[in-house]
Amino acid sequence: MGKEQIEVLNALDVAKTQWYHFTAIIIAGMGFFTDAYDLFCISLVTKLLGRIYYHHDGAEKPGSLPPNVAAAVNGVALVGTLSGQLFFGWLGDKLGRKKVYGMTLMLMVLCSIASGLSFGRDPKTVMTTLCFFRFWLGFGIGGDYPLSATIMSEYANKKTRGAFIAAVFAMQGFGILAGGIFAIVISSTFKSKFSAPAYEVDPLGSTVPQADYVWRIILMFGAIPAAMTFYSRSKMPETARYTALVAKNTEQAAKDMAKVMQMEIGAEPKREEQEQTKQFGLFSKEFLARHGLHLLGTCSTWFLLDIAFYSQNLFQKDIFTAIGWIPPAKTMNALEEVYRIARAQTLIALCSTVPGYWFTVAFIDRIGRFAIQLMGFFFMTVFMFALAIPYDHWTHKENRIGFVVMYSLTFFFANFGPNATTFVVPAEIFPARFRSTCHGISSASGKLGAMIGAFGFLYLAQNQDKTKAEAGYPAGIGVKNSLLLLGVVNILGFLFTFLVPESNGKSLEEMSGENEEGETKA
């Protein structure tokens, strides 16, 4: 393409922050809001599912999902997400961002609704249909990752691009918050309408038949925000970078963006000679020489981060029980338990999750992605070790508040750190024709880490003494050693960050080397 940058892309790069940027954030961000809601709301209702479908007469504790069912219900959406990231990431580069963007949303709406309608009444069919639709829901959510990031980065200007992509990602925090708040509202409404004794008073009566509607309503509610943005998504034009650099139609790109930005953009006439240069393919020698280490960097850092990030579920139960936010299960009825869990999750989201994201939005274009990611991994390492080494100290009643503070800080620095930057960077450093594929590959590595974090550590964190491990689980290495291992994971994340280039304030074409691609290399 020679040295000169295509005019329409330059216009996007230097544009002042204006209305269409915010519309793009809201349209892409609502997708993320829904993703977080859908992935997260299942953890609010798993205990309830156990009480409804796995109740054993005469047992002293309420029914709970058997380990393999619990793993399937919680994990199947992650497997779906991983597959969706790879498939839709690739498709987004093949067919264009816009076409695929509507498909993922439709899939999410349909599967959200379907996951609340199970066929049959017995535990097996309910869990099977739930898992089936949660997989396809995850598949749609997976498509949202690479596409939202790519669309936002391609619409943004140079100066505030990081903040815009991070703002889309930060909508996750609000999704989690909405999930918690909605569950609180629904469970307390049902609780006041249908009162029930605690489990220890009346095991069967403690779960009212209406409780079966509660989890369904909570799961199905996720369809609403997705359906609301469907229309605006279909009205959004294809990104100029895709049209100009991949579909090679600069005139169309200029027309689309002139409409969006409400300004005149000179459309360049098609030049024949620029078609002659042969472009290198994904995973070709040339690609690996230019971007191989970058891809390794974005994949490994996201993978390592998610191991640490998703292992948080392990400690949540213990922490909430420890501070007395969630009393022992048998002292509550089913709806009370949903209410307590939702309240605890909402408080955590409010205190550490949401602020961390917005700190990233505020600082990412000032101090850069690289600094934030290094700082985040560094502090996560420090806090993990600070929790692990004196672990016995934290288990005493009087030190519990300290434990919670340290724990919240770990996740504050995950969100004001690698959790946000690993999402931003892959959308900026690869050429337009691989951008959504490479982002998909990076985020899929992350989901692989998430599975290790969520399930590997479920087994690892069990007590070393088999008799003290949770029902149905083999002996593990204990919580202390698990925390030490997570500290090591964060150190590795810190080191792999050095493979990733800084993209702060540079144009996308400069980062990906697309300006020079057309020339013969001297």
From TrEMBL:
GO terms for cellular component: membrane. It is found in: Membrane. Residues 24-505 form the Major facilitator superfamily (MFS) profile domain. It comes from the Eukaryota. InterPro entries: MFS_dom, MFS_sugar_transport-like, MFS_trans_sf, Phos_permease. SUPFAM superfamilies: MFS general substrate transporter. PROSITE patterns: MFS. The chain crosses the membrane at residues 20-49, 69-88, 100-119, 163-186, 213-231, 347-364, 370-389, 401-420, 440-461, 482-501. Keywords: Membrane, Phosphate transport, Sugar transport, Symport, Transmembrane, Transmembrane helix, Transport. One of its GO terms (molecular function) is phosphate transmembrane transporter activity. GO terms for biological process: arbuscular mycorrhizal association; cellular response to nutrient levels; phosphate ion transport; response to symbiotic fungus. Signal peptide: none annotated. It is a multi-pass membrane protein. Belongs to the major facilitator superfamily. Phosphate:H(+) symporter (TC 2.A.1.9) family. This is Putative major facilitator, sugar transporter, major facilitator superfamily. It comes from Lupinus albus (White lupine).
